[in-house]
């Protein structure tokens, strides 16, 4: 596997690389993921983890109680046999079998109260660290969904973005994983949106920045590709202010989605965005699931959606990139995606315009939970 920093845009490349790293692991694998399903790719990953455990590699796996609900007990049983550590982030209150694997220890009665209070807070992060030397992050869950195997076209996979990094930054990611594993990043009502810079000098300052602070620093461009667009008032205000100040603000959102609701929600914001000078594009070549940005001369890759769930409720992980080559790749992909998108203009309204107003009302009513 190539060293340094490397972007991945297809599920074949991503999972082949990830499986190769797992099969070459010597000491430790730290893995957290929102969705872990025992479909074709999920079983391949779990078998690779079992093989690693048989070689004496220490495994810590953190899955989400909602995202991985369907197969959590089977995964737990298999990893118990391999003497691996599995924890479940906020199991559903009625899933008693997973209580002993919850990050929060306690009696069943206290767990019920706690989990009912925290059921809306999920761990949406995707991170795998191999031997403290390589780390994988981005938008890929462990699921066949990303391959879109139902399609008759072999090239019809989801639009995702992931990153593999090596070097000193991996140690910081390992520390952050330990903080989540040991629940040192806060309790109910507090979340961990973790931004990191690939430059050692600025990392200490940038790792604690919120997304709004990162965007406020933009001076030339903010180019956004995001799967689930339902922005907070503050985020929307910043994007509009930047566009009105003459900064290039472009937004690519999906024309179709695995969540039927979200394209309609995004469309409810179009008029406001366009009037502020923000250019909006709907991407329809494949199902868009990426969460990336190009902000001036930096790129961003991670798990954060631009909606209330990611920005208020869920734990997320994103990396700010300063490497010129990687930022250039993100820029080139953004330009290519625009070519496969329909630009939305005031004079070019989409079909179902009549839905915009009621969906806008519904979005504002429900936006805190979406």
Strand-helix topology:
Blueprint: E1 6-8, H1 11-23, E2 28-33, H2 40-54, E3 58-64, H3 72-81, E4 85-89, H4 108-118, E5 127-130, E6 134-138, E7 162-166, H5 169-181, E8 193-197, H6 200-206, H7 211-216, E9 221-226, H8 233-244, E10 248-254, H9 261-267, H10 270-275, E11 279-283, E12 291-295, E13 298-302, H11 308-313, E14 316-321, H12 324-339, E15 341-344, H13 356-366
Main attributes of the structure:
about 375 residues; alpha/beta; Endonuclease, Chain A; 2 domains; 8-stranded mixed sheet; 7-stranded mixed sheet; about 35% helix; globular
Main sheet, how many strands, which sense, barrel? 8 strands, mixed
N/C terminus separation = 38 Å
For the record, what is the CATH homologous superfamily label of the largest domain? Endonuclease Chain A
Count of DSSP strands? 15
Quote the average pLDDT.
85
Number of domains: 2
CATH class of the largest domain: Alpha Beta
Radius of gyration: 20 Å
Q: Give start-end ranges of low-pLDDT stretches.
A: 185-194, 197-208
- Biggest sheet, strands in spatial order? 8-14-13-12-9-10-11-15
Strand content: 15-25%
H/E order of the elements?
EHEHEHEHEEEHEHHEHEHHEEEHEHEH
Count of discrete alpha- or pi-helical segments spanning 4 or more residues? 13
Query: Helix coverage percent of residues?
Result: 25-40%
**CATH fold topology of the largest domain:** Endonuclease, Chain A
Helix-and-strand structural type: alpha/beta
CATH architecture of the largest domain: 2-Layer Sandwich
What global shape is seen? globular
Describe the structure in your own words:
- With 370 residues, the chain is α/β, with parallel strands linked by helices.
- The chain folds into two domains: 6-181, Endonuclease Chain A (Endonuclease, Chain A); 193-369, Endonuclease, Chain A.
- Helix content is 36%, strand content 21%.
- The chain is built from 13 helices and 15 strands.
- It has helices spanning 11-23, 40-54, 72-81, 108-118, 169-181, 200-206, 211-216, 233-244, 261-267, 270-275, 308-313, 324-339, 356-366, and strands at 6-8, 28-33, 58-64, 85-89, 127-130, 134-138, 162-166, 193-197, 221-226, 248-254, 279-283, 291-295, 298-302, 316-321, 341-344.
- An eight-stranded mixed beta sheet has the order 8-14-13-12-9-10-11-15, sandwiched between helices.
- Helix 8 (233-244) links the parallel strand 9 and strand 10 (248-254).
- Helix 1 runs parallel beside helix 2.
- The longest helix is centred in the C-terminal third of the chain and has 16 residues, at 324-339.
- The radius of gyration is 20 Å and the shape is globular.
- The two termini are 38 Å apart.
- Mean pLDDT is 85; it is low at 185-194 and 197-208.
């Amino acid at each position: 596997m190539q060293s340094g920093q490397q972007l991945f845009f297809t599920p074949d490349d991503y999972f082949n690389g990830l499986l190769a790293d797992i099969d070459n692991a010597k000491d430790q694998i730290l893995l957290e993921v929102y969705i872990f399903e025992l479909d074709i790719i999920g079983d391949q990953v779990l078998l690779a983890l079992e093989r690693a455990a048989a070689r004496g590699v220490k495994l810590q796996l953190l899955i989400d109680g909602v995202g991985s609900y369907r197969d959590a007990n089977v995964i737990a049983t298999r990893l118990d046999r391999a003497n691996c550590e599995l924890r479940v982030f906020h199991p559903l209150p009625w899933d008693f079998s997973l209580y002993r694997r919850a990050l929060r220890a306690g009696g069943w009665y206290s767990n019920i109260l706690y989990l009912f209070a925290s059921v809306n807070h999920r761990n949406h992060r995707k991170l795998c660290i191999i031997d403290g030397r390589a780390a994988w992050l981005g938008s890929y869950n462990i699921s066949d969904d990303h391959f879109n195997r139902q399609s008759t076209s072999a090239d019809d996979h989801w639009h995702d973005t992931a990153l593999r990094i090596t070097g000193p930054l991996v140690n910081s990611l390992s520390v952050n994983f330990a903080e989540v594993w040991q629940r040192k990043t806060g309790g109910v009502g507090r979340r961990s949106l973790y931004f990191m810079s690939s430059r050692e000098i600025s990392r200490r300052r940038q790792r604690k920045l919120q997304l709004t602070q990162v965007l406020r620093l933009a001076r030339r461009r903010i180019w956004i590709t995001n799967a689930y667009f339902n922005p907070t008032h503050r985020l929307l205000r910043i994007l509009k202010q930047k566009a009105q100040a003459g900064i290039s603000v472009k937004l690519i959102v999906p024309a179709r989605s695995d969540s039927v609701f979200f394209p309609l929600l995004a469309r409810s914001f179009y008029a406001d965005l366009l009037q502020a000078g923000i250019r909006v594009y709907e991407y329809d070549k494949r199902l868009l699931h990426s969460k990336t940005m190009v902000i001036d001369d930096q790129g961003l890759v991670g798990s954060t959606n631009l909606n209330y769930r990611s920005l208020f409720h869920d734990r997320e992980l994103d990396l700010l990139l300063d490497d010129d080559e990687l930022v250039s790749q993100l820029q080139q992909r953004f330009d290519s995606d625009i070519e496969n998108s329909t630009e939305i203009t005031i004079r070019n309204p989409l079909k179902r315009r009549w839905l915009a107003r009621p969906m806008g009302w519904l979005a504002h009513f429900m936006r805190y939970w979406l």
